[in-house]
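re: ur question from earlier - yeah i can do the single chain one, its not a big deal. heres the input i used so u can compare w yours
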Amino acid sequence: MELLHSRNPRASQRFDGIATQYMRIGEELGIRWDLAFFQMMLETGALSFTGDVRADQNNFAGLGASGGGKRGERFPDIATGVKAHLQHLMMYAGEHIDDPVAERTRKVQEWGVLTDWQNSISGPMTFSLIGQQWAPGSRSYVRDIATIKDEFYTRFCNAPDPEPELVQEARKGRLTQTQIATNVPPAVNQAAAVATPEPDTSKGAVIAQKTIAEERKENPPRSALGAGMLGSVAATAKAAASAANKPAPEAQSQQVQSQQAQPAVTVLNSTEQKTAPETPKTKPDASTGGASIQTASVAGAATQLKTPAAKSAAKCKVWTASYGGQRAIIIKATTDGTDNYTVLDVNETSQKREVEAYIAAYAKGGKQIGAFSNQTKALDKAFELCPEG
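and the output i got, formated as tokens:
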């Protein structure tokens, strides 16, 4: 929203919660809602609505607006309009929408307008491909969206969140958890879009990354799984692979994997992936010659990517998890000989209940071993207990 307001300071206050809706609905559908949000900014002129579509239509992707004064579809509220946009993107990506919100989505799907084009795509569906088909008459459409994306991730993403409570609101009722992993995720195409949620920028993951960078500069880089890897991903992956005497994975687009009710992360070139409590689903990937890739839920389950062989002897790991509060608890649980230290953000008024719920769901047999006023202090202690974590 800071990005949007920087481009349109006069945006109506009625839209103050629109990013929350994109995040909430996008994560439920398992779609790259951040890039859809940037597309919305381009389509609406950062919610200035200077074209055929009017603000009160809640039509954020110009659905049905074909020019010449044709205003397109109208949706009853902001959330419905956001869902219509995201469903339309999913339909472009090849997903069948059982009950589409937008009439335009229903018609395109029933008429099979995109079928031949979709069948012509031999590899993963990316946002660049969708953009070229979405606006075939424009030479700059994809580039303009990429410009907005780059502005966000180079300027706004690294700044303090002015309203962190909105993330909690978007993820209400869903526990988020991320392991601090010692490996670097595989390289991905920066243009990949309708596939996985954008890297975890939750408070816990950001603090964890800063702590790692400041306290462990002499060790190989650690990062939250899938976090902050835009820009120099390919170069970083090659450097890490070279250090481990392994061939570096080539940069690849992430495959579209939309799952109802849970977002999905696609991991390429991995040898193992574990999730809790769900079991990963495996699908063949045409871009890798039919080799299987794995997808795993990331909203409400911890996701672990196997570390390089040199690190496989580690006997402990550090995780972060959050119920949205400011107080941090360290929970220790031992599984298969590995000590897992989880830094859990809890709400002070419901601390006991949240700790017990977390242990019951994700750390059976675990126990609380420390309480801290904030996550940074808790992470410092966790890395003291588990330096290789």
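The first strand starts at residue 176 and ends at 181. not sure if urs matches, ping me
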